[in-house]
Amino acid sequence: MCAKLASSKDPNRLPLHGLAVFESVARNGSMSSAAKALGLTQPAVSQALKKLEQQLEVNLVMRHRNGIELTKAGQELFMSCVQSFDQLLNTINAIRQPKSGQQEVTLSLSTATATYWLLPTIAEFYQQFPNILVNIISRDNDSNLKSGNYDLAIPLSAQPFSQQDFHIWPLLDEVVFPVCSPNLLEHHNLTTSNINIEGLQQLPLIHLENNPEARISWHAWVQASNQKPQLSLIEEEVPAHFMHGQTYSDYFVALSAAIAGQGVALGWQHIVKDLLQDQRLVRLGNQQWRSDHPFTLIAPRRKALTPAVMALRDWLLT
Amino acid sequence: MCAKLASSKDPNRLPLHGLAVFESVARNGSMSSAAKALGLTQPAVSQALKKLEQQLEVNLVMRHRNGIELTKAGQELFMSCVQSFDQLLNTINAIRQPKSGQQEVTLSLSTATATYWLLPTIAEFYQQFPNILVNIISRDNDSNLKSGNYDLAIPLSAQPFSQQDFHIWPLLDEVVFPVCSPNLLEHHNLTTSNINIEGLQQLPLIHLENNPEARISWHAWVQASNQKPQLSLIEEEVPAHFMHGQTYSDYFVALSAAIAGQGVALGWQHIVKDLLQDQRLVRLGNQQWRSDHPFTLIAPRRKALTPAVMALRDWLLT
DNA sequence: TCTTTATATAAGTTAAAGTTATATAAATAA
DNA sequence: TTATTTATATAACTTTAACTTATATAAAGA
Q: Which nucleotide is nearest to A38 (CA to C1')?
């Protein structure tokens, strides 16, 4: 009954609920699957998304028969949501104090590795060790691995960590190949097999921001491919097409763009494995590049190797 | 009536509503003023905050007679909230298309300058130019000023921008002095006046992350102070105390820490002016340092100087 | 033509969030 | 001392945003 101030129409008030729903829709590629992921019904998601678009006065998704596609604005907003929510989740995990009696391990890895490689199987670990809590901290770069507060980490970069300061165990071979959404190929009337360097030049490419730590780049991939005789290109030059395209600073965001049909990304085998299986991505051609810098699991020597840490380490290494 | 899945107790579901309330409480320094800022009543805020603390199982604030104080966990969470919500707000502003008939200017400045210098007076501008919409984009560093999409900006760094690519107008002198919360002084039984370099060594210091762009650092401040004869220290050495303390990468977050009583920060006069007036901060000593790199307003020449842009420029420069 | 699989809309329900009223506790003023 | 002010907390009731069920629409495939 009381006169409301500028509370609900305040432009600086974030529509957080709507953003959370939108993030799930964008991540899952459809409203129905987002609803399942959120534990809601499909109409709830449809309504929340519609409301958000009305509040922002921007079209965020294009509705298709087989799901949704993000508009340009939707893509930008999705990137922001992923990064913002990730940061909040990380911080909450970091400040949450463990329940007494509960053992704890903190594992630091990239958002993409966490989402697509670890999370699908972590339930097994919890089943095997119900009294160990795994604290997952995701990050975009390795800058805080020198000082950060964690027990185990999977560094993104290939730069070696000193044996003096870290325990180091080899974890996974680095195997890379191009991937994209099945829809993208359809639009361009191409098929997955026999896509070589020339074929790739007909498709938009998705790049990772060119930081020195990055393992993966289209430039390096073309150069590596050229050393194989069966490819038709002259060795020395990388075509200009491989230098242009959308660039993201986070691999998870780049992969999300690929899933959304924005272009072709370079995929690490262990990360895209599940995405290939459920057809959210397809592999292009049969070329693959295996680097000589395997992914490693590291543990800072300044932290104790508690039984919980060792249990997770052994589970990861099997 | 339907059986609920793991919807509400999902640990990966962010309590966004609670976080928004908490952010406002932390920013405003008390629940009552947060309630006012949010357009809610005090019990609503009290309940929301209590619920959040129960959900996270962490104490975020200490309740005092004169407001609240953040715990260590609360500080960390506040930083994350500020950064995350800021990023979302920026993106939303960026993707929002202007209403037809409405003129628009995009202004890029630091979060602290936006919050404490611009926002308190921007209403005047809107009153004078009701048909111009000012799109405020806040940022922590100048890295995207070379390429970003904005009409006007106030660079953080003192590095000169090229006259070829930018219009440049001098805006504000850079005047710096130490500030802290009145409570901090009380706890240490000190008074505001006559705090010199020795006095500062009894108080915790708040630093800005040492990026090359930073204008402001305790190290530089001590060195500058030492050149003034009335200070008692021998010229050459900066005491070790000025090299240690909490370090933040964002000036807004550093200032928030100072307001929360965490320590002494270096304050730019134009930014802390209002905070001194309403006693959220007090100035220590009467030393001040005026640099010879005034803050400037810049406009990229690649963007047109529309009437709306010129109106905002002229209003800022008066 | 009949499923299947998307999203949209309408109408009723529920639970989270908010309000009012009151309590507690500390500091301040009379 | 006793009132006043200013802060947070709690109890009980109210509102409304969010959610559900039911149904519609539209396209693709069997």
A: D19
What was the pLDDT predicted at B152? 95
* Residue B289, strand partner residues: B176
Q: In which residue are the tokens 């009536």 written?
A: B1
**What's the confidence (pLDDT) of residue B93?**
85
| Size of chain A, expressed as the number of residues it contains | 318
B203 contacts: CB under 8 Å, gap ≥ 6: B180, B184, B188, B190, B263, B264
pLDDT tens-place string over residues A259-282: 777 788 999 999 999 888 877 788
Within 7 Å: CB of A16 and strand C? no
- On whether the CB atoms of residues B137 and B106 are closer than 8 A, the answer is yes
- Rounded CA separation B285/B251 (Å): 21
State the number of CA atoms in the 13 A half-sphere of A211 facing the CB: 16
Mean pLDDT, chain A, as a whole number? 82
In order of their start, the domains of chain A are 16-84 (1.10.10.10), 103-173+294-317 (3.40.190.10), 175-290 (3.40.190.10)
A40: nt with nearest C1' to CA: D19
Question: In the prediction, which pLDDT does A173 show?
Answer: 92
- A172-212, pLDDT tens digit by residue? 999 999 998 877 777 676 776 667 777 788 888 888 876 65
Instruction: Indicate the pLDDT class of residue A84, thresholds 50, 70 and 90.
Output: very high
Q: d(Cα B201, Cα B203) in Å, to the nearest integer?
A: 5
Decide: CB of A50 under 7 A of nucleic strand C. yes
Closest CA to B16 of A257, A97, A22: A22
- B76 and A95 within 8 Å at the Cβ level: the answer is yes
Q: How far is CA A42 from CA A25, A74, B32, in A?
A: 11, 20, 38
Q: DSSP code of A118?
A: I
